[in-house]
Amino acid sequence: MSEYKDPFIIAGKELKSRLIVGTGKYRTFEEMEKALEISGADLVTVSVRRVDLNAKNKESLLHYIDLKKYQLLPNTAGCYTAEEAIRYARLGREAGMSDLIKLEVIGSEKTLFPDNEATLEAAKVLVKEGFTVLPYTSDDPIMAKKLEDAGCAVVMPLAAPIGSGLGIRNPYNIKIILETVKVPVIVDAGVGTASDASIAMELGCDGILMNTGIAGAEDAVMMADAMKMAVRAGRLAYLAGRIPKKLYATASSPITGMLH
Amino acid sequence: MTLTINGEKKSFEKTSLNIRNLLELLDLPLDHIAVELNRSIIPKSQFAETPLADEDVIEIVRFVGGGKSSPSGQLII
Predict the structure, then answer these.
(1) What is the pTM of this model?
(2) Are A18 and A201 in contact (CB under 8 A)?
(3) Do A45 and B60 touch (CB under 8 A)?
């Protein structure tokens, strides 16, 4: 957003891009590397897992992520209890040397909806330990407020279930969340295509975190480019202030000066 | 000594080992990993000063590609 003054700040740090991307589900590391590059993202989320002691191929994800260009956002994906998420967050901080954590506590394997109660519990502990907490939550304004009050740096409501590609299912709740909290609102999960991203940004969301929408596309690199433009288009449309919707036509040419 | 590393029992001939030695034996890099010894995280600066004992339980983690939870993403710890 070079030509418009519109800084995106999370916990005092300015980011260049309002698109935050995941690093999972790519077919190859090379594909991921290209998609990250073209997405323009400067914050990328990574998961914490055991080192495979028996792996013959020692190639690591971080060979493909230039840490001079990208900031890592470790996540607690796959955790089902607050205790587990806290443990992963601490390990992520140690491995990544950063206090940023994308907090995710899942409540159900089938829906991957968050366990909001456990998320809040974990958020309180992690904030106290000095983490900058970015929590994944349902699109519930009350929950968003509780997470903000607990000291989270942002709130990240889902647009639709993780990986569903359904787009924003409840724009009204997202609107209410935007009115309810002062911290940035980042849509996390459910964005399927460019228009979904634009719609989220047109609502006034501060950013979008996306993984499957890009990595799962037939051409992930091209979709990363599309998402970058969609996020930017949506943001600019929001800032520009759209015209009101009206039932009837309004002429855009003068009605005076017509020939008789 | 016998250690449980990432859920696997492994025996070592040496009777004295610290975390740094262990990572070298396993041919693992020191960067961007985290090590838990009996559920406590050991900071990198203390790897060389942290001795291991028979039957210690060690977890060594690193970053992998991921954005969101996936049903197939197995829980590891």
Answers:
(1) 0.92
(2) yes
(3) no
Q: Which residues of B touch A92 (CB under 8 A)?
A: 34, 63
Point out which residues pair with A43 in neighbouring strands: A71
Q: Tokens 């609502």 map to which residue?
A: A203
**Chain B residues with CB within 8 Å of chain A CB:** 5-8, 10, 26-29, 31-36, 41, 43-44, 59-71, 73-77
Task: Give the gap in angstroms from C-alpha B22 to the nearest C-alpha of chain A.
Answer: 12
Domain residue ranges of chain B, discontinuous segments joined by +: 2-62
- Tell me the pLDDT of chain A (260 aa) as tens digits: 457 889 999 999 999 999 999 999 999 999 999 999 999 999 999 999 999 888 777 778 999 999 999 999 999 999 999 999 999 999 999 999 889 999 999 999 888 999 999 999 999 999 999 999 999 999 999 999 999 999 999 999 998 888 888 888 899 999 999 999 999 999 998 899 999 999 999 999 999 999 999 999 999 999 999 999 999 999 999 999 999 999 998 888 888 888 88
Tell me the CATH number for domain B2-62. Answer: 3.10.20.30
Q: How far is B35 from chain A (nearest CA, A)?
A: 8
Q: How many contacts (CB atoms, under 8 Å) link A and B? A: 146
